[in-house]
Amino acid sequence: MDFHLTDDQQMVVDLARRVARARVAPRAAAIDEEGVYPEDIFQLFKEAGLLGLAVPEEYGGMGMGTLGLVLAVEEVAKYCCASGLILLLTRLPLAPIMLAGTEEQKQKYARGIAEGRVRGAFGLTEPDCGSDAAAIRTTAVRRGDHYVLNGTKRFISGTTVADFFTIAAKTDPAAGSRGLSLLVVEKGTTGLSLGKQENKMGVRGVPVTEIIMEDCRVPAENLLGQENQGFKTVMHTLNSLRPVVASRGIGLAEGALQYGIDYARERKAFGQPVIEFQGLQWMIADLAIAIEASRLLTYRAAQFVDEGKYTREYAHFLSMAKTMATDTAVRVATDALQLLGGNGYMKEYPMERFYRDAKQLQIVEGINQIQRNIIARSIIDRHLHW
Ligand SMILES: Cc1cc2nc3c(=O)[nH]c(=O)nc-3n(C[C@H](O)[C@H](O)[C@H](O)COP(=O)(O)OP(=O)(O)OC[C@H]3O[C@@H](n4cnc5c(N)ncnc54)[C@H](O)[C@@H]3O)c2cc1C
Fold first, then answer.
1. Residue extent(s) of CATH 1.10.540.10 domains in the chain
2. What CATH number should be reported for the domain whose range is 7-114?
3. Among the four given CATH numbers 3.30.870.10, 1.20.140.10, 3.50.50.60, 2.30.42.10, the one describing domain 231-381
4. Residue 2 pLDDT grade (very low, low, confident, very high; cuts 50, 70, 90)
5. In degrees to the nearest 10, what's the CA dihedral of 261, 267, 273, 274?
6. Rounded to whole angstroms, how far apart are CA atoms 51 and 60?
7. Which residues on neighbouring strands pair with residue 218, listed in sequence order?
8. How do residues 230-288 score in pLDDT, each as one tens digit?
9. 157 lines ligand 1 (CB under 6 A)
10. Ligand 1 proximity of 200 Cβ (cutoff 6 Å)
11. In which element (H, E) is residue 247 found?
């Protein structure tokens, strides 16, 4: 067991830290306030070479794997959770393509993402179902050399700037999870449009919208893998992304706690800096313990994914990282806001933004109740031990 980062991994941390401190941090409040996708941050990541971190070298990326992406996202999310999501989105819609796509599809989309030429969005959730992914209603019917898609996706991140959409649809609606397929739908496809944009509580720099498909004609070669085999790919995609969602939580928690500590050093009450009160020190210690435990779980989970261990046998370890890190993010954001007293509640300070952003992480990419189901079932049914 090695707890040290390699030289290359440390370089990723240093690079992301530099970029995040100098260029992302000063923009974070305005990104939240404006609620508009920050194109300048995307271009910044492109120039810094961060978009291809998790893309294998043979597709033009840096080949740093999930752990490399996790390290970078953590640094960025210390200041801006929405910007961390921009990095995560270099992976989420691409993962099904890397898992099930043809060599041609991988070359096209992975290379495009690494070079910052294309962006994607991942469309699974629908108005009538989120957690119950097998219940989706969007259909894809084969007609000659095309599939015709009909249905609506809801709450999809990154759609407003996406060039392609990885869409889950039913090719055999009567077959439940065994009738689900994945297709790549390109922007501009006939019958594809974006619907309602949500007015979100947090992570406001990355808008979520509906994706509406009305007799949307997609070339048959855009199918990913085999027809009706998509459910497994969806699960492997979500499993392999758990550490990346977790790293958004860890970064946010670290950023919030650091801000709270800095504030508490300066703020005086009863004749001393408030940081001298033991009640606050113990709170800080407990938060630091939770953050460090989350980091260890998350780095190990990322290493598992990079070793190909994102299948069912390992799912509980990946879910533990996501749950622990995102629950910790909410806890730290709540308590670190408390360190600022009344100021923590005011828009002039970043704590209420951390607090709003953190909440999203417990919900997305597998709500934490579902994570606990995965963990419990693995432990109970398969008698897993350590
Ligand atoms: C900001 C944001 C961005 C998002 N981005 C994307 C995206 O890019 N792509 C995408 O496809 N989706 C996206 N989503 C959707 C997200 O993945 C879903 O919201 C999430 O999976 C939960 O589904 P739901 O909202 O339908 O809740 P539901 O599934 O309706 O859950 C409602 C409640 O029931 C509980 N529950 C449901 N099933 C169980 C169970 N078996 N056991 C215990 N409790 C249960 C849930 O925990 C929750 O408390 C996004 C959501 C948000 C808020």
1. 7-114
2. 1.10.540.10
3. 1.20.140.10
4. confident
5. -70
6. 10
7. 147
8. 999 999 999 999 999 999 999 999 999 999 999 999 999 999 999 999 999 999 999 99
9. yes
10. yes
11. helix 230-266
Q: Is 74 a catalytic residue?
A: no
* Residues 221, 22: Cα–Cα separation, whole Å: 43
Dihedrals phi, psi of 216, to nearest 5 degrees: -85, 115
Is 208 close to ligand 1, i.e. is its CB under 6 Å away?
yes
Which backbone phi and psi does 4 adopt, to 5 degrees?
Answer: -100, 145
Identify the DSSP state of 197.
E
- Domain(s) labelled CATH 2.40.110.10 in the chain stretch across 120-228
Q: Classify the C-alpha dihedral 334-335-336-342 as positive or negative.
A: positive
Is domain 120-228 classified as CATH 2.40.110.10?
yes
Distance 360 CA to ligand 1 centre (A): 10
The pick from 152, 363, 368 for probing ligand 1's pocket by mutation, whose C-beta has the most ligand atoms within 8 angstroms, reads 363
Cβ(125) to ligand 1 under 6 A? yes
Residue with tokens 């922007």: 187
CA–centroid distance, residue 302 to ligand 1 (Å): 23
Q: Which atom of ligand 1 is nearest to the CA of 203?
A: 1
Q: Which atom of ligand 1 is nearest to the CA of 368?
A: 47
Instruction: Say yes or no: CB of residue 197 within 6 Å of ligand 1.
Output: no
CATH 1.20.140.10 intervals, the chain: 231-381
Q: Distance from the CA of 285 to the center of ligand 1, in angstroms?
A: 32
Structure confidence at residue 1 as a pLDDT band (50, 70, 90):
confident
pTM here?
0.97
Cα–ligand 1 centroid distance for 129 (angstroms): 8
- The confidence score (pLDDT) of residue 193 equals 98
